[in-house]
Write a structure and sequence with these properties.
556 residues, alpha+beta, Immunoglobulin-like, twelve-stranded mixed sheet, six-stranded mixed sheet, elongated
Length: 556
Amino acid sequence: MKKIILVLLTSVIGLTFLKAEEREIIVKDKLKNVTVFMQNAQLFQEAYVSIPKGTSHFIFNDVSPYINKASIQASGVGKFTILNTQYRYYMDDPAQVKSEIPQKLLKREKALRDSIKNSQLRINKNAELMQAVDQEKNLIMGNPLVKGTSNSDSLELLKGTALFLREELKELAHLRYILSLQAKKMSDYHRLLKQELKKTQALIQNQNIRPTPTYHHQVIVTVLNSSSAYGTIKLNYLSGNAGWNPHYDLIAKDHQSDITLVYKAQVYQNTGLDWKQVKIKVSNANPNQGNTKPKLPVWFVNFQRYIRADRAKKGLYLQSNANTAITSTENVTEDYDMEIEEKASMLYEYTNKVQNFSSVEFDIALPMNVSSGGKAHYMDLKREKVTTKFQLYLVPKLEKDAFVVARLTDWESLDLLTGQANIYYGNTFIGRTVVNPSVLDDTLDVSMGRDRSIYVERKKTDCQIKKKLIENSKVYTATYEITIKNKNKGDVNLIIEDHIPVSKNEKIEITSTNGDGKLNEDTGVLSWDINLKGLAKKKLEYDFSVKYPKDEILKL
C-alpha cells in the first residue's frame, strides 16, 4: 500500500514539475527599428526577458493587426534555443468589458476624425495633380498648329506637330491613368474610415449597445532553455498600410548656378502602432513585387474574324510612359532663403545611403516619431548639388514667354524615382513638376516652368507680291524681325525657334536669308542659339521669298 502511494505521489510531482517548466509569459517589447518600403514596412521589435528553465512561450502583444504572417522571423541574444514562432489573435468578451469603454470610444472617434481629415487632404492633392494634367492637355490642344489655325501649311511641320501631339497625349493619358487608380484607392479608404466613424458614433450615442469586441493580435515565440538566464528576443515582420513616396525640392538660385536637389521621403503609416523614437530606414524595394522570371506565352497568329458592329465593344485605351513634366503656378507659403547660411543641422546630415544588391536604403541615424493614422511625414534623405545647364526656349510665333529647361548631368548616382517636385527659383516657389528618371539619356531634362523676365516681340516688317513678266511668275516676299531683351542682370542662353514655308510642289520655289540662324530644310524650322548678356537687347531678322506661276493662287 505504501509503494502505491509513493508511486502516485511521484507521478503528481512529475506532472507538476512539467507544468512548471512550460509557461506563457507576456513580454514588454519595444519597437526599435522600421524599414519602410515603397509599399509595406518591416517592423523590428525586441524584449529583454528573464528566461526560466524548460520551455517558455513569450507573447508579443503589441504587434500590428496588418501583420504578414508568412514574414514573421524571430532571433535572440543569449544562451537559449528558439523552437518556433506562432501567430494568433483573439477577441475580448463584450460582457467583460468595463466602464472605460466609452472613453476608449471617444479616443477612437477622434483618431478616426483625424484620419478622415488627412485622407481628404491626400485626395485633394491628387485631384490638384489631375487638374494640372488636364490643364497641360488643354494647353497642347489650344496650340494653333494643333487646332489647325496656323498660317503654315508645311507638311513636315504638321507631321512633326502630329507626332509631338501623339506622344505628349500618350504620356499625359498614362499619368492620368495612374492618378485615377490612386484616386480610387484613396476614395475607398476614405469611405471605410467614414463607415467606421459612423459605427463608433452610434456606440457613443447609445450606451446600452454592447461594444464591438476588440481583436488582439499576438506573436508567440517558443523558447527552450536548460537553465534560468536573461536574454533578448527579437521579432521582425512585414506590416501593410505603410509605405513612402518620393518627393523633391528643386532649388535654383539663378540661370548660372547648379540646382540643389533635396530628396525627400513622404512616409505614411496606419499599422495600428505609433512609431515612437524609432530608427527608420527608407528603401526603394517592394517586397510584394513578383521576383519570378516572367515567361513569354506562345504568340499565336490567325486570320482576322469580322465582328458585327452591334456586337462590338466600344472603348478607348490609352497607354504610355509618363515622362511629361507638369508645372503649375499655385501660390504657397513655402520659401527658401538663398542668402542666409543655415546654422541648424538638417535631417539629411544624419542619413546614410546604403547600396544593396537590388535596392537602395537610406538609414536615418536620428530616432523619429511617426504616428499611426495615415498622416504624411516628410523626411529629408539627402541634399546634393547637381551639375546643371539651364536652357531657355523661345517660340515667339506661338508663345510670348520663355520656357526654362534644366538639363541635369551625372544624375544616375542619385537613385531617383518618379515623383512630384516643388520648384524654387530666386527664393520663390514657382510651381510643381514631375521628375521622371526612366530615360536612357545621359542628361535628365526637367521643366522648370515659364520665365517672364525675357521680353520677345515678333513682327512682319515687309510683305509684297511682285510679278515677273519675263519668267511668267509671281514672287511673294516677307521679312520678319524678332526682338529679344534680357531683363535679368545675369547672362542667359537662349534657343529661339521660328520657321519658313516648305514647298510641297515642284513649281513653288522658296529661298531665304537666315542671317546667323540655322535652317532645317526638311521642316523649315529656323533656330538661333545665342548668349544674351544681362539687360541686353538683340534683334534677329530673316526673310524668305516664294516664287510660283502667276496663274496660281498661293496658299500660305
